[in-house]
Amino acid sequence: MVRKCLAANIPVLASTGGAPTALAVEVAEETGLCIVGGAAGTPEMAVYTHPERVAGGMEGGRGGGS
Q1: Cβ proximity of 24 and 40 under 8 Å
Q2: CA–CA distance, 65 with 56 (Å, rounded to integer)
Q3: Which pairs from 3-11 meet CB under 8 Å and 24+ separation?
Q4: What sign has the CA pseudo-torsion 28, 34, 39, 45?
Q5: Of 40, 32, 30, 38, which Cα lies nearest the Cα of 60?
Q6: Which string of b and e fits 47-64 if b means at least 16 CB within 10 Å?
Q7: Most CB atoms closer than 10 Å: which of 5, 29, 36, 51?
Q8: φ, ψ (nearest 5 deg) of residue 50
Q9: More confident residue, 17 or 51
Q10: Residue 18 DSSP code
């Protein structure tokens, strides 16, 4: 999915599923893609790369503005 987002010039990849792979995080970090996990309509989410792209995000942890 990371490579598809990069090919389509999509800056943020959000998922309601589990954590991304280490390779996905590495590629996203190097290319500027923001990966967000756990974005299932709740205020809690994990921002794995480039948290500056998400208001209230916390890298590698639970965010949501708190």
Answers
A1: no
A2: 4
A3: 3/27, 5/33, 6/31, 6/33, 11/53
A4: positive
A5: 38
A6: bbbbbeebeebeeeeebb
A7: 36
A8: 50, 60
A9: 51
A10: S
* Long-range CB contact pairs, 51-55, < 8 A, 24+: 53/11, 53/12, 54/12
How do residues 52-62 score in pLDDT, each as one tens digit?
988 765 555 54
The pTM for the full model equals 0.74
CA dist 48 and 4 (Å) reads: 18
